[in-house]
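Exercise 3.2. Students should predict the tertiary structure of the chain below and write it as structure tokens, then compare their answer with the key that follows.

Predict this chain's 3D structure.
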Amino acid sequence: MTAPATQKRVLFYVQHLLGIGHLARASRIASALAEADFDVTVVTGGTPVTGFPGPRVRHVTLPAITSGDAGFSGLTDIDGNPVDDAFKDNRRDLLLSAFRECQPDIVIIEAFPFGRRQVRFELLPLLDAIAATQPKPLVVTSLRDILQERSKPGRDEETVATIKQYFDRVLVHGDPAFARLEDTFPLAAEISDKVVYTGLVAAPPPAKPQEQFDIIVSAGGGAVGNALIRAALEAAKSIDGTLSWALVTGPNLPQSDFDEISAGAPAHVSVFRFRPDFASLLAGAKLSVSQAGYNTVCDILRAGCHALLIPFTAGGETEQTVRAERLARLGLAHVLTENDLSAESMASAIRSALAANGKPPHGLDLDGAGRTAEILRGLL
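Answer key:
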């Protein structure tokens, strides 16, 4: 199927390894591009997730890889086997084939080279192929607002060199009034001519909730929210039983844990694996209890409800802690650390958050998906 001559073609590469945050944000952007009359092909290489990348886009799936653990220390296939060179070569060839078939005007690569170094075995050949193409497509990286701190010497310099060699723009999906690239990337000044802020990529305002809960507890799409959900369940047993609770465990919680949590829930607590109306549930809630991932925080800011955030810190992750602490300083969230997480501390933190009055106001730009489409149209 060939795009109409008036449509500009976009190839959008996204690789999720542990949770689904990267995929969810990329899907929101891809949807906005499609609505802006771009012809969009999304290439994914992680575990399949129902509903993503969404309608109105072509979807190319590479053989799935995932992170071997929460510290991103190795890559495995969908069956848990370490990936070998033949597996990597096959993915590289499939990605190059997708690029040649798409013949894009713009290539968007999510996270790389600021992250996703694990897949440079296929991304560097892709970038070389793009550089050799005439006319050459625009190349941009799609980047969240707060980056993971790098501890290995030379990594930031390597990132800058790759940006200068291959990329036309660095699209930072954030509001510079909240976080700037230089806050978490020390060498940002060296690529400042390429950096463009889009605003936060939040979903559109949600529909009015068809069902209402006072407290929404969510663990996102990742596999690391078990302790959060269990602490919330115990806290619910000690807090005012007239409040209604929804525990949304996420798709990756083992079935045995889901069954155990469901069986132990009191009458005022409902347990769900997934709620497609999650954003609208937040709009009707008194409090959201969650990790501090980018997409969940965007949903909370859009809904305007109070928030208790428990930032994910496994494997030395710092990004969620930085986000949560900044929101707390603005009066937009309460924070409980993973190290302090227990049924008792959860109950205490929830009581404190519920005592806050009114909906927290903010002026943060949440229209990053639509703005990304406008920016790319302007670059063309």
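Discussion points: The mean pLDDT is 93. The CA atoms of residues 56 and 90 lie 27 Å apart.
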